[in-house]
Amino acid sequence: MSRALATFLAALVLVCLNTACSRDEAAGRDTASQTRDSKSTPSAPPAAAAQQTHAGMNMPEHGTANLRTPNPTDPGSRPSTGSGRPEALEGRIPDPGREISLSPDMISRAGIKTAAATKGTAASRLHLPGVVQPNAYKNVDVTSLVAGRMQQVRVELGQRVMQNEVLATVYSPELADAQTTFISAKAQREAHGLALTRTQRLYAIGAASREELEKMTAEASEMDRALETARARLALLGIPEDRAQRLASPADVVTTFEVKAPFAGIITKRSANVGLNIEPSTPLFTVTDLSTVWIVADLYERDFATVGVGSAVSITATAYPGLELRGRVQYIDPQVEPETRTAKLRAEVPNAGDRLRFGMFVDVSIASRTSRPVVMVPKGALQIVGTQAVVYVTTGPGRFVQRAVTVSDTMGNDIAVSSGLNVGDEVVTEGAFFLRAESDRLGVR
Fold it and tell me: Is there a contact between 142 and 284 (Cβ–Cβ < 8 Å)?
């Protein structure tokens, strides 16, 4: 039994020794193979290693646009990520420290042109909600000068009318009575004038007493006053002097009065209907000139020092995208509302085409009295990538870098940039879209 156990243990030891030797031989063969491979195959350059690492990326070929990583000591550059892939900003904006290199032929074919950023000044702007209201100076309630009954109405609500256009006719016994009174006073004065002339002649030859002459003269003065009163009444009722002089008999009496438009505009209210009995104080129509309108906004107390009468105003409305109307502040209410701590601000703007309607909400942008220095670039230099405004700045022949900027305001054909650029920087004014496409293609995947 002891002999068998000893034989078993000796066999087990032999098996373990054989297994260990087999493992050592296999390890030696692998090490030798790796040594031979390292001696026979040259090491890959860093660019090739990067291509192997990013096998899924489309790497640029020689002679095409390329993203160049500047010197790490350059303060404007950023380090690349640990994977070797160019770092990108959020919203597909490449690292502003990386440059886009283009050959002269590519620059020519893309039509890339540059211009130097210039110095300028821009006023800060205040944005307020506003409401469209009619120009109160050109919004008139039309009434009749005489009392009577509406005989005819010639216009409809919303109709455009011209100045002195007849809106309605009124049958007026009052007007007829005034004309009749004038004709009677005029006839009496003419008859009395003949009698006075005759009395003056008789008095001259001693056939009439002085008392008779003075009586006739006093009566003539009283009739003159009555005639002038009748003529003034006709003028108040809208009958001009030349027409009053043509009144000679009852056949010349006019019983209707014409209600006319005071100026050109649109009928925005109509209360007149045929058969309506009216007084001179009864409003019949409202005529509004819509060529200009008022924009009323609430100016907060904290902004009183930055806005004043004469400040430039621009108006935009969501109903008309792209429409911008310009005007100036004409009035600021001297009274502050205690509940809101605001004062009413009013601006007048043109309203071509009657696009602005009463009660519409608009955005009011007001230039403040203070100004600040800015950098001016042409509109064509600006590109929007995601939610960020960017421009492309030249850093050398055929080299461009994308730079994020803060846009302040639009001034004609230029854009004011408050940060991100310096005066004298050469920015791309034409062909910026091509650089943006190259930047997206090469810098962000």
Answer: yes
